[in-house]
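Help wanted!
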Amino acid sequence: MTALHPSREQFQLEEVLAALGHPIRASIVRALASGEEAFCGSIVPDVPKSTLTHHWRVLRESGVIRQRPSGRKLYITLRRDDLDARFPGLLDLLLSDEAFGKTAWQPSTT
Amino acid sequence: MTALHPSREQFQLEEVLAALGHPIRASIVRALASGEEAFCGSIVPDVPKSTLTHHWRVLRESGVIRQRPSGRKLYITLRRDDLDARFPGLLDLLLSDEAFGKTAWQPSTT
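Answered by r_m:
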């Protein structure tokens, strides 16, 4: 299994914005902001795995994260260097907004 | 007819990013960047009106644009001051990206 990761040159700003413009994905980006690699199950533990599968894909295909499979686990890093190189200041700007990525995720009650 | 416009304090960064993260909406923002009010039919003239109705709503509800009805026409401005006040540097950063809002819009051939 090799996840498809666009090269830095292939990033498109509109796609990156669309990827970042969602409460769960914004939480993921904030959780990964330190740059440390994280096990995918530990990043937003309250969100069901089936919901996350879609979000990993959107984040990966736009270039926001890198996925590294290891055995049956998946490890995630924020592609901070690549994003900073292509869109200087964007991540800093988003992470400096206190509310970004902090909307509590509410499980559906239906 | 009074369009619903959120106050500056109601803006949410994730919603603004989602609004900006679309090729047609990015083109609209670029076209309005000068700050001049524009007739809605003149901004992205190649895009069908039925397609645009949805995009005006997304842009308006997130706080990116202001709509002013005048007779049967609708005039649009970018809420640049409000966006700059809430998310300083964001619009400048996006508009400094040469490709942002310049993806040619392709009419569907189906």
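OP: Thanks! One thing I noticed: The interface with chain B takes residues 12-23, 26, 87-90, 93-94, 97, 99-101, 103 of chain A (CB under 8 Å).
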